[in-house]
Specification:
Layout lengths: L1 H8 L2 E2 L12 E2 L9 E3 L5 E3 L7 E7 L4 H16 L5 E8 L3 H10 L6 E4 L3 H5 L4 E2 L1 E5 L5 E6 L7 H8 L5
Parallel strand pairs: 1-8, 5-6, 6-7
Antiparallel strand pairs: 2-10, 3-4, 5-9, 9-10
Length: 168
């Protein structure tokens, strides 16, 4: 728990991007895709490798992070816009109690799994030092894009970048 607290203490929260800030996804240049193996709120295990063949949006967030909460509805709109296509979203919550996350989800229903990174070890391996932090993994399992900060994920330029990765 101390390791999680130390990591969380060092996190920076990033709000909405200003007009001059980047509004597209950055190509990934950070090396191989880290592993991801976490349980969701129902206790089901999710392993990133099991999503091979789908483009996966992995979002690191917390309920105490206002920009994180603000962008969740746009991630859900993106997911719905790509429904029926090989696309998945995994929201990784950083070291919060189940009850707190469930209370948030009662107000903001999401159609994708929320995984619990109880000790923030996965966030650390993904180098998610700021929240929100989002990564796009291609259908081949390779990391393709990242974005740090709040973003409207349902905007057409962003949606198009992700759709271009979808297998045909």
């Amino acid at each position: 728990m101390r390791a999680a607290a130390a990591l969380l203490a060092g996190l920076v929260l990033l709000g909405p991007a200003s007009g001059s800030a980047q509004q597209t996804l950055s190509p990934w240049q950070g090396g191989p895709t880290p592993a991801l193996r976490l349980k969701d709120l129902e206790g089901r295990e999710h392993v990133l490798e099991a999503y091979r063949g789908k483009v996966v949006l992995v979002n690191f967030w917390a309920t105490w992070c206002e920009p994180c909460k603000d962008e969740m509805p746009s991630i859900e709109r993106l997911r719905r816009s790509l429904e029926g296509r090989p696309f998945a979203v995994l929201a990784v919550n950083l070291a919060e109690a189940d009850a707190r996350v469930q209370a948030f989800l009662a107000k903001v229903p999401l159609g994708f799994p929320v995984l619990m990174d109880r000790d923030a070890a996965v966030a650390k391996s993904w180098k998610a030092r700021m929240l929100p932090a989002t990564f796009i993994v291609g259908a081949d399992g390779r990391m393709r894009y990242s974005y740090v900060g709040e973003l409207d994920w349902s905007r057409e330029p962003v949606r198009r970048q992700i759709a271009e990765l979808l297998p045909r």
